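Thread amino acids onto this structure.
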């Protein structure tokens, strides 16, 4: 398997600025994120504190970011990263489509979900999963609930429904995909995942649905679930001045490292992380 110098998780200003700087430094890397780059950009009507661009809209900034990537031939892979696993001197990175290897990782995932669902953490790996593509075969002939935070999540629900007997789809946001016949749409919001040792049911505001498994398909996964062993305080990844986390070779930048949640701070941290990655890789190379 090809081992990249770095894998960047996240396509907001932090991840993109990291990508631009790694490209300038001639490092090999993959950039994972969303087609819209960052939903926050799309929804920001007017930005007044982005130096050099007073009054710019989020959509215009998004357009310029895209142009910047294109001008430097930086491809964006629209894959959801589900797990970053430290393997000693490299990282194994599992997405909803494939597994990759990199010597370093930059986490630029934005803010993680404000709240986990009750029962989620306790039943993680015991019926609760974040990667439908990876784990759907476990539910062949069974009943599964899929909670989707994005349009793509409905596609994953369709994939699960190819194998499962029955799928309940609970969309948290609007979606435009057509669902397969064996998927029942549930519009009542999810409230709790029930089960003593294994998932047994999904409780919504209005009903309790018996299920064998639950897939939670968010745009962003809590850092502690994404990277086993990473140090997190109050939901934010702990970093030093070089954006290095407690795991050697694993860096973080942007909103995922704390407040204030601001565009220029995110971009500045992305640049700092990329330069620190470069120094880290050069030091490792000189030690060999
Ligand atoms: C309505 C609104 C208005 C705002 N206005 C301003 C303003 O005027 N000025 C200002 O400075 N800031 C403003 N902000 C804040 C600013 O948008 C954020 O601080 C900034 O976008 C953070 O950048 P980031 O790169 O850290 O994360 P984000 O912009 O959140 O980007 C992270 C991206 O990574 C993706 N991602 C996360 N996890 C994964 C994964 N596991 N696999 C693949 N992709 C993943 C996410 O889906 C997302 O696309 C505003 C925010 C909002 C919501």
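Threaded sequence (288 positions):
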């Amino acid at each position: 398997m090809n081992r990249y110098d770095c894998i960047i998780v996240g396509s907001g200003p932090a991840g993109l600025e990291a990508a631009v700087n790694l490209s300038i430094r001639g490092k090999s890397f993959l950039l994972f994120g969303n087609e819209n780059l960052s939903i926050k950009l799309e929804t920001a009507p007017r930005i007044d504190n982005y130096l050099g661009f007073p009054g710019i809209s989020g959509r215009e900034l998004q357009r310029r970011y895209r142009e910047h990537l294109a001008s430097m031939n930086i491809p964006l892979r629209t894959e959801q990263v589900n797990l970053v696993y430290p393997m000693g001197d490299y990282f194994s990175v599992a997405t909803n489509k494939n597994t990759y290897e990199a010597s370093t990782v930059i986490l630029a995932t934005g803010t993680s979900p404000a709240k986990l669902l009750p029962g989620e953490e306790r039943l993680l790996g015991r019926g609760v999963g974040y990667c439908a593509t990876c784990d759907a075969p476990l539910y062949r002939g069974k009943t599964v609930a899929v909670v989707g935070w994005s349009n793509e999540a409905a596609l994953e629900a369709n994939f699960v429904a190819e194998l499962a007997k029955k799928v309940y789809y609970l969309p948290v946001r609007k979606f435009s995909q057509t669902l397969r016949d064996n998927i029942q749409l549930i519009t009542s919001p999810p409230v709790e995942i029930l089960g003593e040792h294994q998932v047994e049911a999904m409780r919504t505001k209005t009903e309790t649905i018996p299920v064998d498994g639950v897939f939670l398909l968010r745009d962003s996964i809590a850092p502690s679930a994404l990277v086993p062993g990473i140090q997190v305080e109050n939901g934010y990844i702990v970093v030093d001045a070089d954006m290095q986390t407690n795991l050697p070779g694993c860096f973080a930048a942007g909103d995922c490292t704390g407040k204030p949640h601001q565009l220029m701070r995110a971009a500045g941290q992305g640049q700092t992380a990329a330069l620190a990655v470069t120094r880290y890789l050069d030091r490792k190379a000189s030690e060999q």
